[in-house]
Write a structure and sequence with these properties.
Low-confidence stretches: none
Largest sheet: 7 strands, antiparallel
CATH topology of the largest domain: Jelly Rolls
Number of helices: 2
CATH class of the largest domain: Mainly Beta
Strand content: 35-45%
Shape: elongated
CATH superfamily of the largest domain: Galactose-binding lectin
Distance between the termini: 41 Å
Oligomer: single chain
Helix content: under 10%
Amino acid sequence: KAGVPMLDTDRYIFPVCFNDGFLWSSEEESYMFSFPGDGQNDVYPGIGIDLHDAKGVDKHWLTAIENSNVVWISGELSENDDNSVCVLLESESQSEIFYIYNKVYKRSLSVKKGRKLAKGDIIGTAWGDPLWGHLQFGIVRCDTTPLPSDVFSNLINGFPQLYELYFKDDFYHIRQYSKGRINFGKPDYQCGNRKNSQGFEVYEGKGWLTGKWNIADKVEFVTDGIDGNVRLRKKMFRGTGAECENPLNYFDYEISVPNGTYRIRAKAGDIFSDTWQKIEFEGVRPFTLSLKAGEFDWTTERIAEVNDRRLTVRIYLDEDNKTVAGLSEIVFQKAK
């Protein structure tokens, strides 16, 4: 029901402590139903919360989301390396609900199997994987206790509840920007796994305008571990369950901003493919860039007027659909 909290905040708490200044962007590419777009047909198991600045150090401690019991601790999951373990908690209030805290830093682990935890009790800190520091958090509903081998088999979507626990009374807030630098497709460790490939969301204040034709509600991105970009073409996610075709010959990226005059420019190109793109800011005279694979170039600065609270960047595609378009960065600033 609109306006009624999903969870009682006297019983539940966000699973990362705020004492060390933790800030959650809520924009990570690692969330349930986030199609990876790399030829796979699976989705991300759970929610990956960026904690890269706390990787391997005593900072941003992980906490029990509610009163619960430690069912098991295992380092046997394929996602774990020698530094990380998975902790499974069983809800004290709902016997069929379990909480997954995966990629916890082994040396910081503060709980043992069988221990009863109160809401907010410390579990440990995050490790993540060899490159990106993060917590893989999941909620499971299961009649029997999940095993490490199939712990992600009965996941339920807990993103709305986490979002509410973090933002509380600002749950329905609209995010706006007056200036910024937006990177696209960069490696996880550089950007906190914010690829900026997702469809527009009011709570993020930015994103791609997609439609019913795009079941994944996102665009493709590529990365080589050092750099990255989004890749735009008429037909996306080829050979997967999310294969789709844009009925238009362009893509729009929108940023929620106050009305006014903006300075803006963009960096185009693709790390692996030749590109052709015509880039237009708010209908102002466009730039056309034709670049070789691995080549990137900036448009010159344009002055754009915004009257609808949306700063729109339109990228036109090659009319013959033979060459992809690529976008690496956007920088913008309100001039007046």
